[in-house]
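Chain X:
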Amino acid sequence: MKKMKELIVSAIDSGTVIDHIPAKSVMQVVRILGLEDFENTILIGTNFDSKKLEKKGIIKVKGKFFKPEIINKIALVAPQATLTIIENYDVKDKTVVEVPEDIIGLVKCANPKCISNHEEITTEFKVVNKTNGLKLKCHFCEKTFGQEDMRIV
């Protein structure tokens, strides 16, 4: 018996594909990328079956290529996401996003008493754990917190 294949998401001719996003983080990635007001074609899918993540999401953005500092933000909420650059329906580049060692100006401190939440200063964090849950340590108050307490700036 012939196995049926189903095309779930259509191809784009040029742009960016972000795949392997944890299903719960898809809308957060949409906000990080600022796609709410983007006028080109955007395909957003979530709750697809995944061997790695159980449920994953995918975002395809036609005619848009993102700067590295935006991609770093994606890595904070979707550390296993893959980023694919498409030109003329061909894959030009495919990478796994990486959480940088230092996070500067991307996240707010979870400590409400931290000076960074009361003064006009750029937040700075050291990544202290990338495996078994992302952990960041604030440069100013030295509090360590996990991904569940992270608030993207």
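Chain Y:
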Amino acid sequence: MPTFDSGAYFLTTLIPVSTATIVEDGVPTSPVHALRKHLSLLPRGERSPFATNTTNHFARLVVIDDVDYNGREQPNTLLVAASPELPIDQKYKDLLNPVIAQPQDHLSCPFLFFSADFDSKTGSDAERDAYLRDLWTQSEGELRKVFKYCLGFEARVRDAASFAKYVADCQIETTMPFHDYWAHGVPADKLPNVSLKTVGLGGLVIFAIAAALVYFWLLPHFLHGFIGALLAIAAGVGVAGLAIYLYILDFGKKPFPAAPDSTLPDVLKALYLRRELTRFAIDNQVDAAGTDAASAQRLYDAFKAFIDANKPGDVEGPTQKPGAIGI
């Protein structure tokens, strides 16, 4: 389930960009050109439209003009040599001919790639829509400047709900999510687990039902006996094995659990504490290196002041602002 894993929703969308000529500031231009211009002017850091959302870990906007051409598909050289004599249609012979260009895939129009990773408890569509509605409510002005060049945006998007529906309609499956908050891997006891005893009992039940159905329902009466029993057992093993295989495949799609302290407020707090603790260590090197009681007392007092000022257990504050860049 790559769209949802480890307590994060990985939204990936491809939104078609209009190709009709537009006029901006009195100058005719193309929507994709104007879109690039506005993306380059989009505020970064703490002024980013995504920094107002306290669940958003990452967001990315990219213009995709076309797909890359990876070069010719290299057919078998023996097949190429023999192709003139093969009794196949000419179009297949042309595909094997190295001096004839092979067909290439192209996009019908430019696309705006929009992806976002945000905190999610269940990975449901309702959580995705709620995130998109919040994003629109918090940053409508900036988002409108970007998405207005996309096909159908002006006609369909009127409010937060219609924006969520518009983006959701352009969602594609996320096949390679990025999430690194399980710093040392997921503990074995946190992984989705299933009892082998349960799987075995389930397999036996399916085997018995399948074998009985084959023996008493499908096989003709004259096959009943040793041969019929062997056929029923073989069918039962096959059906039970297939059922267990499909169950394991489906079980493998279960998402990993959320890592502890991995929501955006937790991460921002951790980044803030790392920066402040680094400053504390630099500022108190002399006392830390001292061996007398006075140095120890000053270091103790300084660390107490550090704890009182920065409140490590309180993710609400003081903390790093969303979108802040640097450590």
